[in-house]
Design a protein that fits this description.
This protein has helices at 3-29, 35-49, 52-75, 83-113, 119-129, 131-156, 162-195, 200-207, 213-249, 271-278, 311-319, 376-381, 385-406, 428-452, 490-505, 513-519, 552-555, and strands at residues 252-257, 262-266, 296-301, 326-328, 338-342, 360-374, 409-414, 417-422, 462-479, 482-488, 509-512, 528-531, 540-545. By secondary structure, the chain is α+β, with helices and mostly antiparallel strands. Strands 6, 7, 8, 9, 10, 11, 12 and 13 form an 8-stranded mixed beta sheet that branches. It has a 5-stranded mixed beta sheet with strand order 2-1-5-3-4. The longest helix is centred in the middle third of the chain and has 37 residues, at 213-249. The protein binds FE2/S2 (inorganic) cluster (FES). FE2/S2 (inorganic) cluster binds at residues 284-286, 288-295, 328, 330.
């Protein structure tokens, strides 16, 4: 069966079960009105769920949900998963063991021995006669509800409307079980009072055909049989996973990331499994269920070694306008070594899921930053190659951290120069503010670095930064393994020119007026100039900031 149908089936089953639980809770909450109201509600509840269609839907959903959960547990190659997913799994595995007592005491007893299960009899058992079973039932419904809520939350959370509806849904999610429990408590008190009436309990036992000792023993055997079968199924799944692991240990693939790490993973692991195995941060908003697209990677090498995308994967990729060499990491199981480039930051907001991929070659408004070390070439001539590399790497770490920390993307490290993009996704206004913040952080980083390397350097390192904002064509460009997200166009050209202008003005930073305007900053306190740029008829209006520290008062309150 294709993954699409499995997913649809699972969703349909979950929806039926959720409906059942919600109606059950609403029925319980009628206990706040009276026991009689609860019983009246139960009539409607049973009319639905004990009809043939209701029975088939409910028990079909239980079987489908349970079997698919075990199947997915087997399918899943790595058990490393986010905490929310692990919690949902653990709660889900507990549910059958917790609910089997209740189900055999109600539905199965009704089926097998014609025992009626009105609220009065069930509440008598759970509230008056065996409160310890009542406590277990409270635990069971809490576990069921948490499992359901986590599932619904992670199913819906990347829908655009969800953030707006979240408060309402949370309120409902909190109120429903609370009202159900209060209804149960209220009914419990009413039943306890009735139980003190002479003859009420025997008459209830008789009128509902409550199971006698022999029937109770039969029901107990059924319950035990179910529990044994469930435990056996779990053990079989765990053993099957173990056998597969032993078999696959001899066959592995290497998943290389363009960001550096290489992970060796057993064949059969998805690329996302490999990321989790190797501790490589990788976005996966839907938890690897092939729904959110956030795990998508560009396959730089080894695309042909991947099995073709399933229909479901193709549909998700089409929705985000993915290029032909882009795959969902959670759905792709490499049979040979691959090199991949994750396309979405691990920290992506769920709302950013399923957004068209703006990085495949689009014209965007963005800010571009160029930076260069002043006088480093002369300094390098007097140093050993080892020292040059050491100093440069420290410098790249400082400026790279400042750029990514401000929200930018380091693009090219050439010689002692750096190019960075800001606002690729967020636009030029946010990008301009981020670029200015990055400039400040870069200069701060250089000051710290100069302090640390004071004994190594004849003179402190100085940096010149140019920033311009405007339209540019952004996309993944390059060849072979040297692919990176970059931008081309006049904006890049002008930003590079502004960086060179820092030498002419002996300044740490030169920005265009376009950057100031887009960032919403008043830079009128800084000298204004107009400079010519090759291949441009119009000069560019700029502001010269001799010391970036002077920007601090303006930047501090700026929103990110
Ligand atoms: S993690 Fe959501 S589609 Fe892969």
């Amino acid at each position: 069966m294709s993954a699409v149908y499995v997913r649809r089936l699972r969703l349909a089953a979950a929806f039926v079960l959720l409906t059942y639980v919600v109606l059950h809770f609403l029925n319980h909450s009628l206990g706040l009105v009276s026991l009689a109201a609860m019983e009246a509600g139960r009539w409607w509840f049973l009319a639905l769920w004990r009809s043939w269609p209701g029975t088939v839907a409910l028990y079909g959903a239980i079987v489908v949900h349970g079997v698919l959960a075990l199947w997915l547990l087997y399918q899943r190659r790595s058990l490393r998963m986010p905490a929310w997913e692990a919690t949902q799994y653990a709660l889900g595995l507990l549910i059958p063991a917790l609910l089997v007592v209740h189900v055999t005491g109600t539905r199965i007893a009704w089926w097998l021995v014609n025992a009626d299960d009105p609220y009065s009899r069930i509440v008598l058992g759970l509230w008056v006669l065996s409160p310890q079973f009542g406590a277990r039932q409270v635990l069971a419904i809490t576990v069921v509800w948490l499992h359901a809520c986590i599932g619904v939350h992670y199913w819906l959370r990347f829908r655009r409307w969800y953030p707006r509806a979240q408060l309402w849904l949370f309120t409902v999610a909190l109120l429903l079980p609370v009202l159900a429990l209060l209804g149960f408590v209220s009914a419990g008190r009413e039943v306890a009072a009735l139980a003190r009436t002479p003859g009420w309990v025997p008459s209830l036992v008789q009128s509902t055909h409550a199971p006698g000792p022999a029937e109770a023993a039969r029901l107990l055997a059924i319950r035990q049989g179910f529990l044994n079968a469930y435990l056996l199924a779990l053990v079989v799944v765990i053993l099957a996973r173990g056998v597969r692991r032993l078999y696959q240990r001899r066959r592995s693939v290497r998943v290389a990331y363009t960001t550096g790490p290489i992970v060796t993973a057993p064949i059969g692991f998805t690329i996302l499994d490999a990321s989790r195995l190797g501790g490589v941060p990788h976005a996966s908003v839907c938890g690897g269920r092939g729904r959110c697209s956030t795990c998508r990677v560009r396959v730089v090498r080894g695309l042909e070694a991947l099995p073709p995308p399933s229909e479901a994967e193709q549909r998700v990729l089409a929705r985000v306008g993915a290029a032909p060499d882009v795959r969902l990491a959670c759905q792709s199981r490499p049979a040979r070594d691959v090199t991949v480039m994750p396309l979405v930051p691990p920290s992506i907001d769920p709302g950013g899921a399923m957004t068209p991929d703006a990085r495949q070659g689009r014209e965007r408004e963005l800010a571009v930053l160029f930076a260069d070390l002043r006088g480093f070439t002369r300094m390098a001539e007097k140093k050993l190659p080892y020292d040059v590399v050491f100093v440069l790497n420290r410098y790249f770490a400082a400026v790279g951290g400042a750029i990514t920390g401000a929200g930018g993307i380091t693009n090219q490290f050439t010689g002692d120069g750096v190019m960075a993009l800001f606002g690729v996704d967020a636009g030029a206004a946010a990008g301009s503010r981020q670029a200015l913040e990055a400039a400040r952080a870069m200069v701060d980083g250089m000051t710290r670095l100069n302090g640390e390397l004071a004994g190594e350097l004849a003179a402190p390192l100085r940096i010149g930064i140019g920033i311009h904002a405007g339209p540019g064509v952004v996309g993944w460009m390059g060849w072979g393994e040297s692919f990176y997200l970059t931008a081309v166009g006049d904006t890049v050209h002008v930003a590079a020119r502004l960086e060179q202008a820092t030498k002419d003005y002996q300044a740490e930073l030169v920005v265009s007026e376009d950057v100031a305007r887009r960032a919403g900053l008043d830079l009128s306190a800084f000298p204004a100039h107009r400079i010519a740029v090759r291949n441009r008829t119009e000069p560019v209006a700029i502001r010269v900031i001799t010391r970036v520290a002077d920007l601090a008062p303006l930047l501090a309150p700026a929103p990110r």
